[in-house]
Structure to design on (261 residues):
């Protein structure tokens, strides 16, 4: 049984019973207790459940959304080295662009310190809904034209969201939209995120971009999150700490692997 199927069954059992012991989960899934602990750790990290001694308990829906929307500082501490590597790849990828839409993720935040200043006689316009990223770009004073979307501040993520954020992107076009996400379910081919408000802004950026880039570290592969951002085929490139990869090539290779199995 693959990891995402195991975790889905764990969540179903928790929703039904409210609590689940490690021993019961091991019997249900027919896997070792160590495997159950790893799955519970992954789901707990995403705010999908709360681990307790000997097992886990369900998290109320209202609390789930709050836990998933971790603060900017909390998220910045996770996989920091991988995010730095991703930013280095992204900086090379978007070099020469004239217009960029960048999301409020901590992954994309690292790009702000590495973007090359525009060449003499050229300009680079950047719009973001990330308040920390705007502050970083302004601190550098590297000749960028920088704008912040409209919208309401999210209470924890350092982002602007809501109808005004989406509306402020109307009429704009971008060479690249660079966004991150909470998880990419490889077998399902879906990219998911932690809040519906964040999803709406990212989708608006993607809809207005010539090249759509998904940037996420590999710890997020096959990580379950509740809100659909897009099918993976909606992106042109995926950038992990290993570098950029064209989605079309990745998808073809994935299909060959499935057929081979």
């Amino acid at each position: 049984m693959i990891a995402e199927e195991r975790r889905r069954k764990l969540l179903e059992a928790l929703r039904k019973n409210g609590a689940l012991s490690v021993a019961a989960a091991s019997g249900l899934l027919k896997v070792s207790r160590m495997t159950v602990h790893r799955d519970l750790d992954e789901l707990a990290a995403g705010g999908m459940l709360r681990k307790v001694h000997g097992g886990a308990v369900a998290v109320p829906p209202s609390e789930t959304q709050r836990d998933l929307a971790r603060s900017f500082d909390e998220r910045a501490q996770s996989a920091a080295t991988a995010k730095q590597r991703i930013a280095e790849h992204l900086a090379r990828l978007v070099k020469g662009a004239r217009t960029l839409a960048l999301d409020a993720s901590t992954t994309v935040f690292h790009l702000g310190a590495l973007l090359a200043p525009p060449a003499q006689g050229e300009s680079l316009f950047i719009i973001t809904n990330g308040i920390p990223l705007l502050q970083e770009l302004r601190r550098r004073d590297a000749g960028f034209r920088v704008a912040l979307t409209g919208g309401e501040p999210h209470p924890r993520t350092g982002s602007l969201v809501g109808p005004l954020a989406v509306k402020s992107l109307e009429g704009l076009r971008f060479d690249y939209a660079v966004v991150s996400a909470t998880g990419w379910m490889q077998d399902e081919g879906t990219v998911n995120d932690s809040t519906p408000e964040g999803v709406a802004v990212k989708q608006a950026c993607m809809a207005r971009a010539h090249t759509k880039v998904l940037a996420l570290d590999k710890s997020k592969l096959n990580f379950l999150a509740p809100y659909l951002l897009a099918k993976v085929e909606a992106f042109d490139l995926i950038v992990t700490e290993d570098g950029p990869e064209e989605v079309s090539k990745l998808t073809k290779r994935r299909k060959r692997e499935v057929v081979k199995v």
Remarks:
- The first strand starts at residue 19 and ends at 21.
- The first helix runs from residue 3 to 17.
- Residues 72-260 form a domain with the Rossmann fold fold (CATH 3.40.50.1360).
